[in-house]
Amino acid sequence: MGYELKQSDILDLAHTLDGRTRQKGDELFFQYCPYCHGGQSRDKNTFSVNLQTGTFHCFRSSCGRSGHFVELARDFGYQLDFGENWREKKFKRLPQKEITVRDPAVEWLKTRGISEETTRLYHITTRKKDKSVLVFPFYNENHVLEFVKYRNTDPQRIKDHGKEFCEKDTKPILFGMDHCQGFERLVITEGQIDSLTLAECGVKNAVSVPTGCKGFTFLNYIWDWITKFSEVVVFGDHENGRITLLDELQRKLPIKVKAVREEDYLGEKDANDIYQKYGRQAILTAVENAQVVPVKCVKRLSDVKSVDLSALPKIRTGLQELDQIIGGFYFGQVILLTGRRGEGKSTLLSQLDLEAIDQGYATLIYSGELADYHVKNWMDLQAAGPDNIQVNYDENNQPVSSIPADMLHKINEWYTDLAYIYDNNILNDDSSELESLLDTIEASIQRYDIKLICIDNLMTAMDAMPGEDFYQAQSQFVKQLKKLAVKYDVVVILVAHPRKTKEAISNDDVSGSSDITNRVDVVLSYSRDENNSGWDGTLSVLKNRLTGKLTPKGQEIKLLYSGKSKRIRPASSDKGKVYGWEMKERMQLMNLDNMKSFHMEEWEDLTDEL
Ligand SMILES: Nc1ncnc2c1ncn2[C@@H]1O[C@H](COP(=O)(O)OP(=O)(O)OP(=O)(O)O)[C@@H](O)[C@H]1O
């Protein structure tokens, strides 16, 4: 196994060598070239490593060293993981003697709100010969000094040499490990001042990463220790709307990772800023409020709004017995309507569409078989009802239903903004039409506020479609319909044929992919019943996802069919349906009558007075 380039290795090596780096795009510039050290004139920023490709180059013409990061690592004794055990890497052994805490360190940290007590507890000091350089010793859980980080406090030095650098060839671990007790919660910050701030505030087990927000090799060296914790709270820097360290730690650690909530940063960048501006309680609250970073697409069940299922909005079917069993068509549901050829599925579908219109819902019909004027004619007849239909006889002496023009006009006006039809009479055997059908449905939902989509009948059209993945296409189509239904809170009724032509139909008899009935919420089966004198057709509920109630065998819903109006109504009720357009007309007439009687009374009163 070869070496796989890791940005964290480049950053780690840079810190080990010198620590003063600058990043421009993907190029990481070292302050001095590790090969030529900037030559006699100490040229700066002539050496860079590309963080994406790993190539390095010194731009000083007299040096001009170039190559790959792997070579750089080899030349400077930085061990890379080539597949062999990384634990074999050799680090510098640091002197394990007591550290003298120097006053300038105490004083400087006080300016950041860190008390002398905390500074001494964590053995923060300055360099012996240069008091402007702070020294942060990193001890492991066994109190062994393994890593040292330096921080320039003099502004000029920061400008010339950068802010932080590390002791060469030391093992990167977390700062503050030696103060951790137990393995309940570990709070990780990006900088030592931040973890000291947390310690100052009394937050237990507060640590900081060794080489900034991009170096994660330290995890290799403390893996067994860190994975013992039950949870990690990431209190990184809040930069550009993100919390540093979070993504990487979340990806790498196999334990629960929480993050400080954005709002608990109170508009500040890091823990020390929060502490200096808002005090101890703000820090404690931030840590306590830390939340598990939500897994995409998963939410708490308790966050889901409780709904009264009986009060959920739905479209009533107009068939009372059916509504009693399935509750009506709930928004978000896909209803499959099956039945043998020519039994009356389209007729029933048209009426269900009309019922939705009557309840004020906009509907879209897709008919793959019937011409648009047929769909319209059937729906108009159903809307008009038997009492408003004239029957004439054609040349074969067959009855032909027709609606008087003024009534037709009223019906048209009534459903103008509520009834839409897909403008395609014959479905081509071209799969792109399926896509366009879905797109058209979606656009119609958005533009016309469609709440019911009736698809009649896709299966027949798809039967004719060539291609091996025919079943998969059907299944995918139904899946997409269900997605649309849920996304837009609409109802879809899909007509499908059964495989059987005789005997009773069950869910498994719906032709096409077996997935279809799995994907839908309700399966209805309609069949004519011509041999029976009491009714003309029956409707069975074969699947009902919401409540599970079905029509028991032999207790199917009995329906009457009128050839004159194409209406289908319950055999149990003799009331004829009056749709909105006619209701409106009746109301107007009633109002007119009321008005007339009012005028009469008023007239009589007036005559009395006169
Ligand atoms: N009992 C009945 N119920 C419903 N429609 C009936 C009944 N008896 C006769 N019809 C009439 O039968 C004809 C065929 O019905 P429809 O087209 O609705 O059936 P379908 O099941 O959709 O047919 P296909 O399987 O070909 O799509 C229509 O003119 C319809 O009005």
How is this structure best described in words?
This protein has 610 residues and is of the alpha/beta class. It folds into four domains: 82 residues, DNA Primase, Chain A; 190 residues, Dna Topoisomerase Vi A Subunit, Chain: A, domain 2 (3-Layer(aba) Sandwich), CATH 3.40.1360; 261 residues, 3-Layer(aba) Sandwich (Rossmann fold), CATH 3.40.50; 33 residues. It contains 19 helices and 29 strands. A nine-stranded mixed beta sheet has the order 23-20-24-25-19-26-27-28-29, with helices on both faces. A five-stranded antiparallel beta sheet has the order 1-2-3-4-5. A hairpin with a 5-residue loop joins strand 7 and strand 8. Helix 12 crosses helix 13 and helix 15 packs parallel to helix 17. The protein is elongated, with a radius of gyration of 39 Å. The N and C termini lie far apart (114 Å). The C terminus is likely disordered. Bound molecules: adenosine-5'-triphosphate. Adenosine-5'-triphosphate binds next to helix 12.
Layout of strands and helices, then pairs:
Blueprint: H1 7-17, E1 21-24, E2 27-30, E3 47-50, E4 55-58, E5 66-68, H2 69-75, H3 103-110, H4 116-121, E6 125-126, E7 133-139, E8 145-152, H5 155-161, E9 164-166, E10 185-189, H6 192-200, E11 206-208, H7 218-226, E12 231-235, E13 238-239, E14 242-243, H8 246-252, E15 256-259, H9 271-278, H10 280-288, E16 291-292, E17 314-315, H11 320-326, E18 329-330, E19 334-338, H12 345-358, E20 362-367, H13 372-384, E21 390-393, E22 399-402, H14 405-415, E23 419-421, H15 431-448, E24 450-456, H16 458-463, H17 470-488, E25 491-496, H18 515-519, E26 522-528, E27 537-544, E28 557-561, E29 568-570, H19 580-609
Parallel strand pairs: 10-11, 10-12, 12-15, 19-25, 19-26, 20-23, 20-24, 24-25
Antiparallel strand pairs: 1-2, 2-3, 3-4, 4-5, 6-7, 7-8, 8-9, 13-14, 15-16, 17-18, 21-22, 26-27, 27-28, 28-29
Helix pairs in contact: 9-10, 12-13, 15-17
This protein binds adenosine-5'-triphosphate.
